[in-house]
Amino acid sequence: MTQHDTNMPDDQQALSQDGWSYGQSLDYLYGRINYERLSKPSPGNPMKLNRMHALLAAMGDPQASLKIVHIGGTKGKGSTASMVAAIATQAGQRCGLYTSPHLESLEERFRVDGQPATQSQLISLIQSVRQAAETIRRQGEGEATFFELTTAMAIEHFRRDGCEVAVLEVGLGGRLDCTNICSPEVTAITSIGLDHQNLLGDTVEEIAAEKAGIIKPGVPVVSGVRDPAAAAVIQQIADERQAPLLQIDRDYHVQRESVAGNNPSRFDFLPSESAPLPLKRRTAWPLALAGIHQARNAAVALAITDCWNLKTQSLQWPEQACREALATLSVPGRIEFFPGEPLVILDTAHNRDSVEALADVLAERFESQNVVAVFGTSHDKDASEMLTILARNVKQIVLTRYRTNPRWYPPQDLAAIASRVAGQSWEVVENSHDALQVARHRAGPAGVVVVCGSFFLAAELRRSLVERS
Hints:
Layout: H1 22-30, H2 50-58, E1 67-72, H3 77-90, E2 95-98, E3 110-112, E4 115-116, H4 119-138, H5 146-160, E5 165-169, E6 186-189, H6 197-200, H7 204-211, E7 221-223, H8 228-240, E8 245-247, E9 252-256, E10 265-271, E11 282-287, H9 292-311, H10 319-328, E12 336-338, E13 343-346, H11 352-366, E14 371-375, H12 383-391, E15 396-399, H13 411-421, E16 426-428, H14 432-443, E17 448-452, H15 455-468
Parallel strand pairs: 1-5, 1-6, 2-5, 6-7, 7-8, 13-17, 14-15, 14-17, 15-16
Antiparallel strand pairs: 2-3, 3-4, 9-10, 10-11, 12-13
Helix pairs in contact: 1-4, 2-4, 3-9, 3-10, 4-5, 7-8, 11-12, 12-13
C-alpha cells in the first residue's frame, strides 16, 4: 500500500470496472496537483473555477439535486459544518458532509449521515471523476487537481446516496476554491485570521475579501468573524451582493458558563431585536465540544439553522434536533479527549487563532495541572507565534515532526525557536510516537498531554490513541 493509505480495503478484492484496485485508485488521486502538499500554487495550474464547472458538467451536474450549506473561514469551519450536518441528520434528512483534510483515511471527507464512504464506493467514485477529468482535459481545460477531483467525488457521492442536504466546507480561501461552484441556501464565514498568507494575502482585510468570495447575491450569510477590519470587508461585500448578513456580537450574541476538566458545557444563543432576519433565542443549551470558540461555532450553526428554516419550508430543522445534535456531537481532532493517566487531548490547531483557542481551554480547565505539549507543524506556518502561546500554557514542550507529508518543519529548527520563547522547558524527539510516550512520562498519571500543531501530526497519532483508549 502507498504511504498515503492508512487503512486496508474493506474488500480486498474490490476493483473498479476497469480493474483498478483501491491502492491504484488512491495513487491516481495523489498523483494530481495537491495544494495540501504544496506551499504555493503551481504556475502551470493556477486555482480557477472554469475547470471545476466543466468537470461537474461532464458528470451530469450532480450538485443540481442538492440543497447546500456552504461554510468557509480561517478556523471553525470544519466544526461548524459538522454541527450543521449533525442537525440535518438528527432532523431525519439524509445529509452529506464534505470536509478536508482527513485525519486517517480519505473516506472521512465524504460522509453521509455521519458515516464515511466505504472503500468500494471510493474506487467507483475515483473511476467516475477520472473519466470526467480525461474528458475535460481533451477539451483543453487542463489537468484537474486533487481537490477538484475530491470535491466532485463528494458531490457525486451525495447524489448517489440520495442526499437531500449537503454541507460543503471550503478547502482554501473561498473566491477561487472549487467548492464555490455551488448555489447554496445559506452561506457562512466562521472566522478570519492570518493563515495561508502566501495564497490569500498578508492582511486580514485581504484574506476576508478572498473568503467572502463565497457570498452569493441574495443568499443569507452568517458571520462569526469578530475582527473589526475583517468584519467590515464582509459587510461591504454582503451589501454589494444584497445578501442579508447576520453578524456575531451585533445580530446575535453568545454566552457560555465556565467548566472544569473534560465535562460538557452550556451556552446561550441570544439574538438582537435589530437582526435583519428573525432568530430564535436559546438558553442553557448543552454543548459537547469544548471551548468558547466552539460555543461561537455552535451559534453560527444555530443562525444557519434559522436561515435554513426560513428558506426551505419542506426541510425543516426542529429545535429538538438542533439541541440533541449539539449535545452529542464529537469531531475527531477538535480538542478531542482521550481519558487515561495522563489524560491526552488531541487537537488539529495549526495557526495562531486555533492555538489560542486551545490555550483558552487549557487555562480554563487544566490550569493547576502538569500539562505537557507534543508539537509539530508545517514549514509554511508561523511556528514562533504558536510556540509562544503554548509556552504560556504548558509546563514543557516535546518537539517532533510528522512523516506523512513533505511540509514538515524540522524539529531542530523548532528547537531554535523554542529556546527563545520557552526557555529550557523543551526537548526534541524526532519520532512522533516516541514523542507522545515521552510526554506521557513527563506529565505523570495526574497530568495532561496535549498534541497540536498540525492536521498531519494529529492524524499520525490518533489511531494509536483510539486503540489505547
